[in-house]
Amino acid sequence: MVILTPENDKPVEKKVGFWESQRLSKEKSFENQAHRKSLKASALYTFSYQMGAMLQGGLSLISSLEIFEIENDNPIMRILARQLRESITGGSSFSDALRKFPKAFPRLFVSMVEAGEASGTLPEMFGELTEHFSFLTNLSKRIKGAMAYPIIIIALAVVLVGALLTFVIPVFADMFADFGAQLPLPTQILISFSYFLRTNIFFIVGGLFAIFFFGSRFFATEQGKRVRDFLTWRLPLFGTLVQKSNVSRFCRTYAVLLKAGVPILRTLEICSSVTDNQYIQTACEKLKDGIKEGKQFSDIIDKETYFPKIVRHMARSGEQTGHIETMILNVSNIFNNDIQNIVSMLTSLVEPALVCFLGLVIGSIVVAMFLPIFQLSTVVAK
Question: Among 134, 203, 233, 262, which is disulfide-ready with 257 (CB 3.0 to 4.6 Å)?
Answer without folding.
Answer: 262
